[in-house]
Amino acid sequence: MKGVRRGSHGGLDMINQLPDEVLCLIISSLSVDEAVRSSVLSKRWKPLWKHASCLDFDGRHMIKPLSQVENSLSGKVSFDPSKATQQHARRYGKLVYQVLRHHLGDLVSCRFRHFPHSLSIGQVKKWVEFVILKKRLSSLSLECEKLIEKVNHIFLDISQNVKTNFKPRIFSNLYSLELTNYALNSLALSAFETCEKLKILKLKNMLIEDETLNGILENCSCLENFSLIESTGFNKLKILNLTLKFLELQWLTVGEIEVFVENLEVIVLNSLICPIKGLRIFAPKMRSFHSGCNATALRMQANRPNAIVQRVQANQPEQRVLKTQDILENCSDLLGSQTVNTFQNLLTLSIDLDLNNIREALSLSYILRSCLYLENLEITISVDEVSNSNGSSDDCTLPFPNSIFWERQEILYNCINYKLKYATIRGFTGKEQEVKFAKHLITNANMIKRMSIICDSSIVDEATSLQSLPRASVYLSITLKSKINNQLDVVA
């Protein structure tokens, strides 16, 4: 190939044939310390990092005490954030300023992972103002080290009076904002004033009061994507944003959650501790629903003598971890608690549910009859080890044998018969009700194209026998998978 440079080892140097614009995109995917180091590759690479559209600052990698470097034989050395002092924060801040001062042009996105002292000495506030006001930033991610400490998923403010204050309306021109490990009080509300341009907001590991959280949601009137994860400090969560399309709520302990959003399309719920009737969802245009319950959350609930769990539930003893069954029953008209079928327009249903528990199977059966257009069904078979170990159960009895639950001719699942295209069952063990449900899909789903059965250990005989069943769909491909040592063994 004429005109193509060769590298130092004689191979074709293809990467240097790329235009600067493409190289800048590559550099933009690197952390700041990696991007700056790329300048030593050649004279051509030296100025490229200055034109990167994305900058990712991480104090753990940019601050390396000499002793750590000297003792490191090889590999990348990260600074231990728990040992960060104000001096370390100032050193890190100086590096950030140098990079920002030499950077040319505007920024699309910027991420700062910093130390608590960076807040107390005002560095974070200055960084944010610079990248938003001078660099016309559209996407910002801020993460503080050790401002919020997590103990058994309970979050404690250990910032020692470190205040998270930003300039009023500073976030008003952002398209996306992510905050992790901060304590926000009512004073922080002014930073969210006139945030009509903000479309994506993600709050994680936050300590935040009711007034502040609900005030932020009110100020972000055009929000389309909202995530609230592993956060505490509030008791009532009201989500009424008319433009919201995606909602994610994970690892929360609350007394009440009200979601009233007509245009909401995707809901993700996981490990919520809340009174069953405290969760209310009105989302008639919902297209995708994901619900899970982490086993750790269930074990926390069982260990109520534990002092930390007692703190969580001291004021509201009726609170417990919501299982998928609770959510399906309460947020549909199954128990007469709602007059609108929230699930009727679903295209994707992804849930943790024990098919061997008849009450949970009943809730699934009702939802499947309610869904008119369901195309993708994903079930992770979850076992309530806590209930099994103490002998308690929320199962129920039927007026007919359990073995015919999925075989009743009078019950029609139109979405399965005429709409379902893809099905996945994880945690398959070969128990009777699991086999019966899988058999029902294989022999009744006329439009299904692919079905995946995933076993936690080796592929059980009951899963293998499913491949010999007559199939309602000529397009159906059944794939068996085993998850051994976190490796998937596939048998088509």
Write the layout of secondary structure elements.
Elements (H helix, E strand, L loop, with lengths): L19 H9 L3 H6 L16 E5 H4 L3 H6 L14 H17 L6 E6 L1 H5 L2 H11 L5 E6 L3 E4 L2 E4 L18 E5 L2 E2 L15 E5 L2 E2 L1 H10 L5 E5 L6 E4 L6 E8 L2 E5 L5 E9 L4 E4 L5 E5 L2 H8 L4 H7 L6 E2 L2 H7 L17 E5 L5 H13 L5 E5 L4 H6 L23 H5 L3 E7 L3 H13 L5 E6 L5 H5 L11 E8 L2 E5 L1
Parallel strand pairs: 1-2, 2-3, 3-6, 6-8, 7-9, 8-10, 10-12, 11-13, 12-14, 13-15, 14-16, 16-18, 18-19, 19-20, 20-21, 21-22
Antiparallel strand pairs: 4-5, 14-17, 22-23
Report on the structure:
This protein has helices spanning 20-28, 32-37, 59-62, 66-71, 86-102, 116-120, 123-133, 210-219, 295-302, 307-313, 324-330, 358-370, 385-390, 414-418, 432-444, 461-465; strands spanning 54-58, 109-114, 139-144, 148-151, 154-157, 176-180, 183-184, 200-204, 207-208, 225-229, 236-239, 246-253, 256-260, 266-274, 279-282, 288-292, 320-321, 348-352, 376-380, 422-428, 450-455, 477-484, 487-491. With 492 residues, it is α/β, with parallel strands linked by helices. The strands form 4 sheets. The chain has a 16-stranded mixed sheet that branches. Strands 11-13-15 form a 3-stranded parallel sheet. Strand 21 (450-455), helix 16 and strand 22 (477-484) form a beta-alpha-beta unit. The protein starts with 19 loop residues before the first helix and ends with a strand.
